[in-house]
Automatic annotation (TrEMBL):
Keywords: Chaperone. It comes from the Eukaryota. Belongs to the GroES chaperonin family. It comes from Oreochromis niloticus. Transmembrane segments: none annotated. One of its GO terms (cellular component) is mitochondrial matrix. This is 10 kDa heat shock protein, mitochondrial.
Length: 98
């Protein structure tokens, strides 16, 4: 997994994330059709840029953290046949604290 990110480093305040997979089966064991599966808004940070231009403001998340994304937005990036999404640091709604 890590070798794909040596080839791609986000610029400025961009954050590359991998969305969690959608639930395909309910707790009761019922299979959900694709249209019923909601858009997954949680993701894991896989790479971050150095910060915004001018006076450097570091990005507020770190690699490995779990974050909450907006329902819309982000740029789809395909690396090693896997889908990732690129967001600006300010677009990320929050991060989960363990």
């Amino acid at each position: 997994m890590a070798h794909a990110f040596r080839k791609f480093l986000p610029l400025f305040d961009r954050v590359l994330v991998e969305r969690f997979t959608a639930e395909t089966v309910t707790k009761g064991g019922i299979m959900l059709p694709e249209k019923s599966q909601g858009k997954v808004l949680q993701a894991t940070v896989v790479a971050v840029g150095p910060g915004s231009k001018g006076e450097i403001h570091p990005v507020s998340v770190k690699v490995g953290e779990k974050v909450l994304l907006p329902e819309y937005g982000g740029t789809k990036v395909v690396l090693d046949d896997k889908d990732y999404f690129l967001f600006r640091d300010a677009d990320i709604l929050g991060k989960y604290v363990e």
